[in-house]
Specification:
single chain, alpha/beta
């Protein structure tokens, strides 16, 4: 049995709904029912959130951790599949592809291509061309652009920006150009700097304008769903000692690795 948390608005009808499945399953890290800003947007849009406790994590001790690592890594993927199947069997969601946040880095290629293939099987006449995956980046101005380009080469997938994509009804399409001929996109590995569905004024962000409708319609798989990456930034290392002093009102017991925030004019000097 694979435990999981199921979250939906209190006033939501007990009917099938688009479901976002999140799990980690690695490094003995426990995954709990916590809060991420992007998740509230998903719930407000009518989606259901499921947080799975996959083997390889630290939720249930050393045996649980050992059962999801090294030669047992396949168990993590089996757990994801088992939870998804249970959500369908119990009527929480439909057999349409469930948006995933990847369990581990090692799971990324399989997660992307399996999700894309599932979308492709449910699509129209052009499904015979095979599933189409793209890596979505904010462009060369992103500090992680080299990482995005490396991931695209590793996945043998086009590296694209928002301008190279367009929405046609409830489908996402790649525009004809440097990335290749025009085609329907089945899965997106999202690495954009924008993590939110809506901006500070409540309007949909540019990336949400493109991805949200196909995603909710089950016509697009999104790896790195909205809300991922929150507080997962090396920049926070520059402020660890200050955070300890501010929140705990005491000094750190040991020095952290010195990290410089290049947005700070004083640090640049």
């Amino acid at each position: 049995q694979v435990p999981y948390f199921l979250i939906r608005p209190a006033n939501a009808p007990a009917a099938q709904a688009p479901t976002l499945l999140y799990g980690y399953g690695g490094f003995k890290i426990p995954v709990l029912a916590d809060y991420r800003p992007g998740w509230s947007g998903w719930l407000a849009a009518g989606g259901v959130l499921v947080i799975a406790n996959l083997r390889g994590g630290g939720e249930y001790g050393s045996d649980w951790y050992d059962d999801g690592r090294l030669d047992n890594k396949q168990h993590v993927f089996d757990d994801v599949i088992a939870v998804a199947e249970h959500l369908v069997e119990t009527g929480v969601t439909t057999p349409a592809p469930i948006p995933l946040e990847p369990a581990t880095v090692a799971a990324l290629p399989a997660t992307l291509w399996d999700a894309a293939a599932a979308i492709g099987r449910g699509a129209a006449a052009d499904a015979s061309a095979g599933p189409n995956v793209v890596v979505l980046t904010s462009g060369p101005g992103s500090s992680a652009f080299l990482e995005h380009a490396t991931a695209a080469r590793w996945l043998a997938a086009p590296l694209v920006t928002l301008e190279q994509l367009q929405r046609r009804g409830d489908e996402l399409w790649l525009r004809a150009g440097e990335a290749g001929p025009a085609c329907r996109v089945d899965a997106v590995y999202r690495r954009t700097d924008t993590d939110l569905l809506r901006d500070e004024h409540g309007a949909l962000t540019a990336v949400a304008e493109l991805l949200l409708v196909p995603w909710l319609a089950g016509r697009l798989a999104v790896v790195n769903g909205f809300g991922t990456g929150v507080a997962d930034d090396k920049l926070v290392h520059a402020y660890i000692e200050e955070m300890i002093r501010f929140y705990l009102c005491e000094g750190p017991l040991m020095r952290s690795v010195e990290t410089i925030d290049l947005n700070d004019p004083v640090a640049l000097e």
